[in-house]
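Deliverable D4.2, example record:
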Amino acid sequence: MSQFPSTPSFNLNGKRALVAGASSGIGMACAVALAEHGAEVTLAARRKDALQNLATEMTARGWLANILELDVSDVAGTADAVAQNGPFDILLNSAGLARHSRAVDTRPEDFDAVMDVNVRGAYFLTQAVAKGLLEAGRPGSLMNISSQMGHVGGRERAVYCASKFAVEGFSKAMALEFGPAKIRVNTICPTFILTDLTKPTFDDPDKRAWILDKIKLGRPGEIEDIMGAVVYLASDASALVTGTALMIDGGWTAD
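Output generated by the structure prediction step:
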């Protein structure tokens, strides 16, 4: 009788994960998914009280969770925090900022603020976690929450699109550089996800109609739609996946 192949494991027992932007929304959902599958999760964000409440709820379920107050726009502070608390086998960076306007109305201060978090912060956070893994001689999976807007243009989103296209670029380059050390780098690219931050967009009838027309599955995203992708990319199930963008966009970018 032929021996069947074994499905690679989605189990994350023994892995340490750093989730930046974990206090709410997509970051919180990703932290829950990783912890649920066995990872020890360090919840990182600027809002310490929100992190502590989340960590308390997670540990009450028997999951492994601790907190780290972190502002990814503080590059030196982030590097020190990662060095002191790492190495981390998994990075999920969901820290991000959006300031939408027509391109002709973009202010330099808004441009700089978005780039400071979405590009500079993401770049050096990924660098810091990779350094820890390289020094320890350990493999790892590094993920940045990008966007479908890192692949297409969007209304009133020139600055946001620019920042996410940059995330796609540096993630691919880092994947090439870190591949020989078995450190994988990928992006997750959601469509519009229903959260408190996106509520004003969905409350605008014109914008909601535009979104639902572009999403071929006919509904906006929920944070639960991201959770399986995170576990997949964090685990051995995606051992040969690096330098790629996982689209969770309901078919938006297929058009």
